[in-house]
Design goal:
The structure is a homodimer of 391-residue chains. By secondary structure, chain A is an alpha/beta fold. Chain A has 13 helices and twelve strands. In chain A, the strands form three sheets. A seven-stranded mixed β-sheet of chain A has the order 2-8-7-6-5-3-4, with helices on both faces. In chain A, strands 9-12-11 form a three-stranded antiparallel β-sheet. The longest helix of chain A is centred in the middle third of the chain and has 18 residues.
Amino acid sequence: MISHYIQEAISRGSIIRVMFERGRKLKAQYGADQVFDLTLGNPVLEPPPEYFQALHELAELRDKGLHRYMPNVGFDFVRDNIAQRLRERKILPEVTRENIIMTAGAACGLNIVLKAILNPGDEVIILAPYFVEYLHYVTGYQGVFVIANSNPDFSLNLDELASKITPKTRALIINSPNNPSGRVYSQSSLEAMADLLYLKQKQYHTRIAIISDEPYRELIFDGQKVFSVASIYENSFVVYSWSKSLSIPGDRIGYVAFNPAMNNPRMLDALSFCLRLSGMVNAPAIMQWLVNKLLDVSIDINYYQTKRDRIYQSLKSAGYDLIKPEGTFYVFPRAPGDDALAFMQKAMQLNILVVPGQGFGWPTHFRIAYCTDDYTIDRALEGLVALVRSA
Amino acid sequence: MISHYIQEAISRGSIIRVMFERGRKLKAQYGADQVFDLTLGNPVLEPPPEYFQALHELAELRDKGLHRYMPNVGFDFVRDNIAQRLRERKILPEVTRENIIMTAGAACGLNIVLKAILNPGDEVIILAPYFVEYLHYVTGYQGVFVIANSNPDFSLNLDELASKITPKTRALIINSPNNPSGRVYSQSSLEAMADLLYLKQKQYHTRIAIISDEPYRELIFDGQKVFSVASIYENSFVVYSWSKSLSIPGDRIGYVAFNPAMNNPRMLDALSFCLRLSGMVNAPAIMQWLVNKLLDVSIDINYYQTKRDRIYQSLKSAGYDLIKPEGTFYVFPRAPGDDALAFMQKAMQLNILVVPGQGFGWPTHFRIAYCTDDYTIDRALEGLVALVRSA
């Protein structure tokens, strides 16, 4: 009864899923507090107090019609307020609500953009290391994914990117701050990338979209400012989620905003239609209402920066080869011996769970998610330090 | 930048959408209270008081982890409680949470079932009159839709259905109570349909799924009891939404339950994987928590039954040819002259908006949605009565 594609995919299983299952067995065997799980990007941090305050207000609210269908694109007043923030922060300096559709998180946003723009056989460039679901999203709309590697320090490799662009290239997915590397692409490298794409569009007489997946946009350290490539590239989409900035990944709320310079009067209709056809219909009404109350609220970034600092210093001084993450709640060190699968096995013998880079198209490194409690982090660090010293 | 398929679809536009736009213009011209809009299945009824009570409890709740990612299939405790209700009501007498996945409403549920089971070119039978989005859902997963007409009284036409089943038939979508006709299929006709499908499966050595789309299951009148074909057919899926029974269509929450007799140990994994890939990831955590508190709550069915009675009697005695709806909040009368498009135009001259049956693959009839206020209904009825008398 299951289709060939899905049957094959679930039989193969994802590496992260296998990790998850093994971790469950270890926890059953040794007790949950004796297994140090750094695999999942699922924050233990609770939402900020303002979230619960807004929920109280919502419970008191008797605005007639709040829980009805609204236009598929979402509530006007929510999209107006988001547009204002995007203009003020120069993420999309000219954006209005007519360029914004509310979605059920960033994954939903990526799906409707790809559904709206891909013809069968169109190529979508994905930068490695990558979030593995991108590949499935692209094939889900009969697109073809093309992998372009980043530099060894995870900065943009424009030569590699240039070599992957063909007349069939329809889009490029970019994710900054990056999961899994923690890299934030510099403004100058993003400007050079935009120039490259403009050149290729001209050369091939095509249009290439940049899809900027920005769920970690607010999780950026050391007082850096976010720079979105969408601000300088006409055919661009910003895909956002409040999962990380409000620590509510289970609640599923985000948006897609596109650059009005794209100058396509049907794009909002197309995205709206795709949201409808995908079965989502509209972003959950109560989540739209809630995040509208919280547009200037975020979890405390220092919470993650402090953890980032401790982990980075600890691993670096122990001898790991790693870059200092500039954002996200991940670090992505090189595995001793350059074999992340073997390293993962060794770590597991110490009841430490990490994700080998095979899951991100980068098999020499492994990912640590540090959106967990300090006890887990500290015990895991002890083991990881011992492992690199014995390697 | 928009794909050919989506560009074509949004340019063509849906009839309902065109109605919506014309209605907006009429309202701008004459004032909203002088336009009688019966087009949208978007209840003006507010959610029941228990919904707001549950929202209050939720705002007070500080259960750690409630807003995190949970397993893609949804919370165990919610799925357990739903399974218990489905067993008690004999909708799926043997079901457990291992056969249930929480979704963002029924549209989302239909999408993940189709994504999970369709190979390219597989045929899906859809019974006319139908909810038009079904066609797009099927083509979205490279399936091919095949229309089978119902009887003139909108009961199941098994001869027609039998003639449409081929070796490529992978699924049948059934919707009872039916949008747009209001028909509830009888238990005996559903039993005969199940027998037919068992026979065809044997004849062709195939498996044919029944996908039972049941968002109107609780909106059933005259004390009838619901009978779900899923209870007597092994390869069956029940797709549910709380949009109608709690009057919260904007909030997007529902589930898919499949018959454990399907005996496919990977089906839950497949649905879960499809929910993940579709970008939904998991049904909104807070909506799962809320509906779990409201499993035995419903809006007052009499609210709709009273409207049904008045509309049916009024149209019938005026001379319309129509069946008495047994459920939903729609009636589907025959248009005078058998031309629903022409009738719609005439109605619009009286500022009455109805949906011509072209939007449901049934061009001789038109749909009235009576999930609206009595003033609108009464004023529309005056006009509709006048129209049939002048025809």
